[in-house]
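Self-study notes.
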Amino acid sequence: IVSSVEYQRSKAAGVSGDKIVFSGVGKTKAEITLAIENGIKQFNVESEPELNILNSVAQSRNKFVPVSIRINPDIDAQTHEKISTGKSDNKFGIPYNEAIKIFDKASQFSNLKISGIAVHIGSQLTDLKPYKRTFLKIAELVGILKSKGHDIKRVDLGGGIGIAYSANSKVIDLVDYGKLVKNVLGDLNCEFEFEPGRLIVGNAGLLVC
């Protein structure tokens, strides 16, 4: 989910808090408080200031909150520039070269439990090459973080797999995508999370403007 309204809708639909991941930029203090008070699996953190707010709210509620830190791997997703989110000039996540410093700092917060890494490089991807480059960097980073004592248990690989908008559209074979995840990341001994939003609901309606 990426908002308090989506959180409330999920809960109303019977989803328990320990199955909800709160992603997205611009989380408000009120939204963070709502999720902490009513249960959350993890927050995918976008920035250092967000870590400060999360810890402050968690402290005030005497809660311990699991967080994954979103890394910007500086990978060109080869998609439209308006839906590319993984290059260094895109304002999403922690820059790859600052990741270790941020993980070290995050581990010192009293009420945060660092549980993993999150990444999302863009939407409507139709080629596996950007995914492979991203996964290789994430695998390297997880290894470094574990060697430094960080208990990385989860890797959120985001979404972005494109869908067919016409009969001749090029799309990714999901079996090949699964094999790529297994081959590059399968030895990390982590739980994987995926965000295949468009892939699931893209064919469920039409937008008429």
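Second protein, same conventions, sequence then structure:
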Amino acid sequence: MKLLKYIWAFPNTVLGLFFIPLAIATGGRVQIIDGVLEVHGRLISGFLTYCVPGRGRVSAITLGHVILGHDGRSLSADRVHEHEHVRQYEVLGPLFIPVYIAASIWSLTGGREAYAGNFLERKAFKAQNGIRKDQGPA
């Protein structure tokens, strides 16, 4: 069953895999935590700072089974939140990104912020604040 989840999320994971050689070439690191690749380094930090829209500093982003973060500290701090997004990718597969964008637009049309009002983000923050029972503290 877990293999099917990896396959279903794989179109998005490919986007994350693209960053691995670029991150390593610029002094970055890759580690596997609970079956998810966590990647950080100078190139990733630059990408998150200059290419990801959002208010303030985006500390991490999930693409399938790959999480991109500024550094090891931000990956550790956001692990529960980002791993909740991994579970969302496992459910939505290639539909995750269109659903995420639609949820952000829906949030904006309802007078809420695109990020904070997005139901996928609210669920990830709920997991982070409640620390999922199946994961324990990060």
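Instructor comment on the second fold: Residues 40 and 71 are 5 Å apart (CA to CA).
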